[in-house]
């Protein structure tokens, strides 16, 4: 039985690790500083996925884990259910901690890429993040709103990297004040 389990895990390993790739045209930011990235980020825009479908007022809270990783707490409001939904995950650097390239898991052994490929280097006020391929994209900011010129710049950067920005969902932030668990830095 132990041999069968090992073979099964060895069979799964390429598929598990295959989700932590980097899309062509994307390069993680260098000189990344995790301590400056920790805290609350608001989702400004995203490409649609089933795990976020119908959610607005979406935010992510990043904090240190005791094992050296990063605790990820994603929250969003479902108007249809009139309730907050929450998912907790963990993230770890794939290569160097100075590279904005992490793997994140919300489901046990299964990890996906979390690649920061554009970042406000001076203040860490906005970021452009993708997953293992061009179907995953997020524009994040430290506040629920972002200047139009910055949105346009990030959208152009994502389009140049091969993302279909015409499919972006612009996230509403209209009940954030009613959520005491999320604090603006």
TrEMBL record:
Signal peptide: none annotated. Residues 33-172 form the Lipocalin/cytosolic fatty-acid binding domain. InterPro entries: Calycin, Lipocalin_ApoD, Lipocalin_bac, Lipocalin_Blc-like_dom, Lipocalin_CS, Lipocln_cytosolic_FA-bd_dom. Coiled coil: none annotated. It comes from the Bacteria. Belongs to the calycin superfamily. Lipocalin family. PANTHER family: APOLIPOPROTEIN D. This is Lipocalin/cytosolic fatty-acid binding domain-containing protein. The gene is blc.
